[in-house]
Amino acid sequence: MVLAIAKEIQLRKSELLDCARSDKNDAEFWEVETIYFGGGTPSVLTTEEIEFLIAEVYQHYSVVENPEITLEANPDDLTSERIVELSKSSINRLSIGIQSFFEADLAMMNRAHNSVEAQKCLELATQYFDNISIDLIYGIPGMSNEQWQQNIETALRFGVPHISSYALTVEPKTALNTLIQKDKIDAPKDEVAEAHFQILVETLEKNGFIHYELSNFGKENYFSKNNSAYWLGKKYIGIGPSAHSYDGISRSWNVANNALYLKAIQQNQLPNEKEILSTADRYNEYIMTGLRTIWGVSLDRIEAEFGGNYLDYLIKQSEKFVKDELLAIENNILKPTSKGKFLTDGIASDLFILN
């Protein structure tokens, strides 16, 4: 699999070259700004395998001077030896799936680590890495506001500069869904999630974090460059099974089946499908990503990129949300208010144009 991923890195370098030829003034097409090992559990790779893949990127692409290179990992993967080893590698940012510091929550979510491992992992990781992000889950059934506050305060004690936090969602065919179906635990409640969200925002902002995206909080100079690129509509290439890519006008995604992926790569074929995005698709995506961030949706960009009809539609659809103080327009930028942040995704869907 590692060799196949390396081969795909080689096969797809022409995509950036083609983009560079089409727009020589747009450096983002051909300079790699971030490298992100994510999706699944990439920490199962050895440090040597990670370095091998990073070297392949450098060999076949132009890379900025100090790229952000992130590895996603779970606390049970990050032994003291592994953390020290990674600190000596090209990895300069860790994204750690803590989720909760309470044993009952971790057991319910079927996590492999426990609270002691989570805290021990952070204690050591913060000694070797400056740039660390952790994930926390809110809206967990049975979690009181006081417990959620304690979760946040525990995270803050370690001095991490970035926190990603998401409401608990229940996926089909999971242990959590089975427990809910059997009435062993309650289903997540929107009002609980909203209360936890408000506590999260208030606590982190008081502690110097900037709420730069709906689910992401970072200290100054510690925003995720990788994820920010996605929210700002930059182009990216996803390598490996199930990986998605975006070039500004189309999306592509690799086959999810490992065997089919390996077979195609061995035959020098890219195992992916592509979808050309319509004007409405690109407008909807900008609305969805823009409203989730502190950068908002530029009305000037809407008019310049999509035309006056789209701008008129957006303004008309936004009127009721502006009136209800869920959205606001400042300096020709449309943004959610503090009151509207938790409802951002639902609001965005009401501003979409149907194809």
From TrEMBL:
Transmembrane segments: none annotated. The keyword Nucleotide-binding does not apply. Residues 1-210 form the Radical SAM core domain. GO terms for molecular function: 4 iron, 4 sulfur cluster binding; coproporphyrinogen oxidase activity; metal ion binding. One of its GO terms (biological process) is porphyrin-containing compound biosynthetic process. It is found in: Cytoplasm. Keywords: 4Fe-4S, Chaperone, Cytoplasm, Heme, Iron, Iron-sulfur, Metal-binding, S-adenosyl-L-methionine. Its main location: cytoplasm. Pfam families: HemN_C, Radical_SAM. InterPro entries: Coproporphyrinogen-III_oxidase (IPR034505), Elp3/MiaA/NifB-like_rSAM (IPR006638), HemN_C (IPR010723), HemW-like (IPR004559), rSAM (IPR007197), rSAM_sf (IPR058240). GO terms for cellular component: cytoplasm. It comes from the Bacteria. Probably acts as a heme chaperone, transferring heme to an unknown acceptor. Binds one molecule of heme per monomer, possibly covalently. Binds 1 [4Fe-4S] cluster. The cluster is coordinated with 3 cysteines and an exchangeable S-adenosyl-L-methionine. Belongs to the anaerobic coproporphyrinogen-III oxidase family. HemW subfamily. This is Heme chaperone HemW. It comes from Flavobacterium succinicans.
